[in-house]
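Weekly puzzle thread! Below is a chain. First person to post its structure in token form gets bragging rights.
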Amino acid sequence: MADLDTLRTRFARALEAARGPAGGPDPTPYADNLLTRWREPQRRYHTVAHLAAVLDRVDVLEEYARDPDVVRLAAWFHDAVYLPDRSENEERSARLAERALPEAGVPAAKTAEVARLVRLTIDHDPADDDPDGQVLCDADLAVLASPPSAYAAYTAAVREEYHFVPNDAFRAGRAAILRRLLALPRLFRTPYGAAEWEATARYNLRSELELLEDSPSDAPLAP
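Winning reply:
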């Protein structure tokens, strides 16, 4: 389990760096609101452990980012709204950032950038000239390069989040996502991600897809 006090400290540092010398209100209530969201009972994969993992990967990749602290704030918000039976989670998460960050003292331009980055996680396909988007998307997708036992735990947790979806529909929707990801020219856009995660992630995706290819339906599901 991720340490909540450590996460609060990490949020405060990112927020203070993003809002600059003008400062703003105490970061703690904002961190607590987000942590409450990340700990909602419907979550099995999109939990505080996932949040902490994405933040850790942003730290690994920060040398490639134009504004690492804005990317960190985007990581905090990217799944802040998460209901498995809804398709607009990323949009609602971006709108949450657009409401909360100005109140917390973040300038308009940086707030807009956080929201833009959150929306990029809909399809994880940042442009070649978008280093911050590349860092966030790589950090979010790095779970795909997990060792076999961790990858199995990830897929099991995703299935638990979609427990209400019948097996055939889930298998078809999941297979469609895997095919879409495998069709991308590159899963990872940063040099580190390409070197360290690409090959393993593609192996994991292909292996999972082989188990799902007999699905008779085509229901869309988010990864």
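Puzzle host: Confirmed. Bonus trivia for everyone else. The radius of gyration is 17 Å.
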